[in-house]
Amino acid sequence: MANGMAGLFVGASGLKTAQTALNTTAHNLSNINTTGYTRQQVTFSDTTYVNVNSKDKVSYASYGLGVAISEVRRIRDQYIDLAYRNENSRLGFYESQYNAVQEIEDQFGEMQGVTYESYLTNLYDSINELAKNPTSTVARSSLIQNATAFIEKSENVYKGLRDYQTTLNTQVSNMVNKINNLAGQIYKLNKSIAKVEAPGMEKANDLRDQRDAAIDELSKYIDITYYESENKETIINAAGVPLVTAGELTAMGTRVVEGTTLVIPTWPSYERDVYEDGKLASNADDTDKGQLKGLIIARGNMVVDYTVVPVAPDSNDYDMSTEEGRTAYQQAYNEYAKQQEYYNTYVEPSAILSAMAGFDKLVNGIVERINGILCPEKTETRTNPYLNADGSEIQADTYIYNSVDKAVLYDRYGREVTGTDNGDGTYSYASGEKLYESAGGAAVPVDSYEYLMLDMDKTGYGMDDDKTVGTELFSRIGTDRYIKTIGDNGETIYLRNNLNETDYESLYKLGNLKINPEAAQNVGKIPLSTVQGKEDFDRAKELVDIWDEKFASLNPDMYAKSDYMSFYNNYIGEYATMGKALYNYVGNQTTMVDGYDNQRLQSEGVSSDEELEKMIKYQQAYNAASRYVNVVSEMLEHLVTSLGRI
């Protein structure tokens, strides 16, 4: 046992360590409600021992000089942290997917009472009433009213989907900034922690808590792996790239998809995108992680319409009894297979893109079918183009090119167009645009021109004095349906117009649709009368019958076709099923994340009762050390006083 002056060292060490323990306990209690705080614990060890000779002069006796603080450590389990962050990353991925599906369901009002389906039903009912009396002004006005409501609602839904895509795009940009900010925080904390702990005398526990909180948040946004280096700095890899290292910080950037405002996260330092375009996320290979990836997949990297949905060729349209017919069908099917693969890779995984494409397909199908009955058309193929009154060439519906010696040509927008292999080293093309040798190069000679024109033998007429023909119900913005010109026989003909006022391709797609103002302002011009001015019951019945026709399959992987109402119900049902699955997945992930977080709280969290018990214990230890010092002090005083009397 220590004696003399050494006894004071024992007491002093007891006072010092007890005070440190009390301070640590008080620090725990003061941070009991601090998010991310980790409970700290004091561990004790022996101080220096002093050796003294024993009586046998051979062995040594020793006595200690008290107690010391070996470490003020955080009670934290790195394995629970790892599990928490892995599942938190996966939760972020699926939450973004689920939110997107919820937004799609909200746009169609399926849970708000007034559903989009009611607009389809009202349009059908007005057509059904019109079929009873095609010349009724009241029935025609009702058709215009319900068709207007149908188009306005369709455009509003589509605008809502586009707006949400813009919102997701903003969230992507904001999340890139958040990731960069968190990475910057971690980098700075690394340096601060290394500076404090470098001498090896102190633990930067509060700074470590801040760093762990930043890593927790970062794990939700992007898939990360990490480890702590020898110099106490946490090295982080994000999406396979070193995000935070000991010597540098890799900032994430963005690039804009050409022709859109959509941004793609990039690693400027590595000159590549953060995520490989077209690579699907999978739970099986552990790539379904990170809210950033979930947002990008839900948003998509393009703006789509019905044209991206491939349509399988119908063998009935080909003469399968001949080699040429079978070859043509096989080539068409091969092209369909390529389009299907593209759709499944780039469109189908995105909730927003597949919603926009499928919805536009439905509306386009209804609009074009109704217009096609009111304005029946036929195809004319000729070797020379039709001309306007000023002598300029009228754009054909299709340009035919045979025996071209290039596999790829370009339209006027610079887009590649792939030809059909003729098997003799040449290729054939059928394009709605004139084609060129290269982007901006010379035009390829056209072999024949294919025009769609109003079939005057099948057309209906308006009830007006002019017996107007070619009045469609739905129009494209800034685009007339027909161009009037003079045919070879000197009669007026109506050629389908595919260009808008600015000379760009114009399709019957959402964002470009409206009710034909000519029909809306004068319902008598709707062509549902015969040339004799009688009711055209046959044409009106055709309008009713289209609602029972098999319109299209829901997606390229489904071969069974549905009518309009069934298509819509299946369309909504698919998102309801997807939403339910994602809801369950998010629920399960939330339970897992909360479970790991609760495990962390049980071991890392501060318990007021436990800390108060420790405070009493350390207070008693402090008091005991204080009394010990007093006793030793009195003993020394007594010895000194006694020696002074001798």
UniProtKB/TrEMBL annotation:
It holds the Pfam family Flg_bbr_C. GO terms for molecular function: structural molecule activity. One of its GO terms (cellular component) is bacterial-type flagellum hook. It comes from the Bacteria. Keywords: Bacterial flagellum, Cell projection, Cilium, Flagellum, Secreted. Residues 10-38 form the Flagellar basal body rod protein N-terminal domain. Residues 102-305 form the Flagellar hook-associated protein FlgK helical domain. GO terms for biological process: bacterial-type flagellum assembly. Residues 599-638 form the Flagellar basal-body/hook protein C-terminal domain. Transmembrane segments: none annotated. This is Flagellar hook-associated protein 1. It comes from Lachnospira eligens.
